[in-house]
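User: My instructor asked us to take a sequence, write out its structure as tokens, and then describe one feature of it. I'm not sure where to start. Here is the sequence I was given:
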Amino acid sequence: MRANLIAPFVAFALALFAVHAQAVDPASLPKIKISKMGLYLEAKDVPEFLKKHAPKVLFVDVRTIEEVLFVGSPDGLDGQASFGTMHYDKWDKEKKTFVRNPNPDFLSQFEVFALDKGIEKSDAIVLICRSGDRSALSADLLGRYGYTNVWSVVDGFEGDMAKDGPNKGKRAVNGWKNIGLPWSYDVDHDKVTMGK
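Assistant: Let's start with the prediction itself. The structure tokens for your sequence are:
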């Protein structure tokens, strides 16, 4: 009988702990950065998260190969699998960029790295993109295929755009690169899907 009284309090305490264990408040995120799993990290917390969950954690960049090659990538990546692909023959006048469509090979490209590292569907997976949009979408897709512990880096590699000041309109607010975490232009052929 006493156990029946304690169980709801234990469940509440665990739920409260889970909310406070994550430094990112989902209510503070724009809709595009919200994933169905609701697991979020800021770039500054990724290195410690990876260390804590090693070796059963996978860190994957979901930006295009062009972004990885010409903008750089975070140190410590296990792989790169493009969530979208650029279509250089189609221009989006409103967004002033080439059209990017979902990559139909994303899941198979991602799973190459998961299998290589022996990652189970319940192991921690950390996804990073430019600013947190595609990592959330990628987390949702992986969730549909049974992955249950997928974290989105909400400020991504380049960060969010400054809304005012001298850097207005530039990705200068947060993100892996802006806060000084280690990164490089060197691309490991074995960690990009183009090389698989």
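For the description part of your assignment, you could build on this observation: DSSP finds five helices and nine strands in the chain. Try explaining in your own words what that tells you about the chain.
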